[in-house]
């Protein structure tokens, strides 16, 4: 029986068409569940035991302490690992200070010690009441009053030897104000007074040197151009006010 030409062409196209793989299959062109089971079986066989790998327990304080002891040169027995077990602060080696500092440093708690003799407890009523009474307090006040002394002011000591002119005595011996001419001066002295006064650290030192060189009658240093007897704007009024 003869087949139609169209049917023969359809069979030829089907034979030439390639099979499209299943896009939903896993690695190796199989479903993912089968692939995962096969991979777990291969890993278990390679490790020698059928038990799955134990998960990591995280950071171990015992291991860290052993590493520090090894760095310090001390031998410590290996500690049994216990997962999820913390370390109590202050436990362990008493020689080791807090903060993992080098061995040999004294451990300080940082807490204030009660009963420190260097700290006064006079403001603590309970502490004072335990050792003081009204009678003992009155005796202590009376003892302090008996030892109290009032020092009376005396005369100032006299200067020993020649210490130079006394500007205080000179200020009290004069009565005129600064700027009032009392002595004759040369016109040339006014031109050199600024440079002459710059050599002294203060008006008091200039007045002492002025009196030591024949002042106020003579102005050999050129520090009193106006002839008032006061060198380099020295003012005697504060000394006079202090005496009143």
Overview of this protein structure:
- The protein has 244 residues and is mainly α.
- Among the domains are: 38 residues, no CATH class; 77 residues, no CATH class.
- The protein contains nine helices and no strands.
- The radius of gyration is 54 Å and the shape is elongated.
- The termini are far apart.
Uncertain segments are none
Counted by DSSP, the helix tally is 9
Count the E strands. 0
What kind of sheet is the major sheet?
A: none
Helix amount, in percent?
25-40%
- Please state the CA-atom Rg, rounded to the nearest Å: 54 Å
Q: Give the amount of beta strand, in percent.
A: under 5%
- Measured distance between first and last alpha carbons: 159 Å
Sequence-ordered SSE layout with sheet pairings:
Blueprint: H1 5-16, H2 32-47, H3 61-72, H4 125-131, H5 134-147, H6 167-173, H7 189-197, H8 203-212, H9 237-243
Keywords:
244 residues; 9 helices
Summarize the structure.
This protein is mainly alpha-helical and 244 residues long. Helices cover 39% and strands 0% of the residues.
């Amino acid at each position: 029986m003869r087949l139609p030409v169209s049917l023969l062409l359809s069979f030829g196209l089907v034979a030439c068409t390639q099979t499209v793989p299943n896009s939903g299959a896993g690695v190796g062109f199989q479903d993912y569940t089968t692939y995962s089971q096969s991979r777990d079986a291969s890993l278990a066989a390679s490790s020698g035991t059928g038990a799955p790998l134990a998960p990591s327990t995280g950071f171990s304080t015992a291991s860290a302490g052993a590493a520090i002891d090894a760095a310090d040169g001390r031998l410590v027995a290996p500690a049994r690992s216990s997962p999820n077990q913390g370390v109590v602060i202050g436990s362990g080696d008493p020689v080791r200070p807090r903060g993992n500092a080098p061995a040999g440093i004294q451990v300080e708690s940082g807490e204030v010690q009660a009963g420190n003799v260097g700290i006064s407890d006079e403001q603590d009523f309970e502490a004072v009441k335990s050792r003081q009474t009204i009678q003992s307090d009155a005796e202590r006040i009376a003892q302090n009053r008996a030892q109290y002394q009032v020092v009376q002011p005396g005369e100032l000591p006299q200067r020993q030897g020649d210490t130079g002119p006394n500007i205080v005595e000179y200020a009290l011996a004069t009565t005129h104000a600064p700027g009032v001419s009392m002595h004759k001066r040369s016109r040339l002295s006014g031109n050199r007074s600024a440079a002459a006064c710059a050599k002294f650290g203060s008006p008091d030192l200039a007045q002492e040197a002025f009196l030591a060189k024949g002042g106020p009658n003579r102005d050999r240093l050129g520090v009193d151009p106006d002839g008032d007897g006061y060198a380099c704007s020295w003012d005697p009024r504060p000394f006079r006010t202090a005496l009143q």
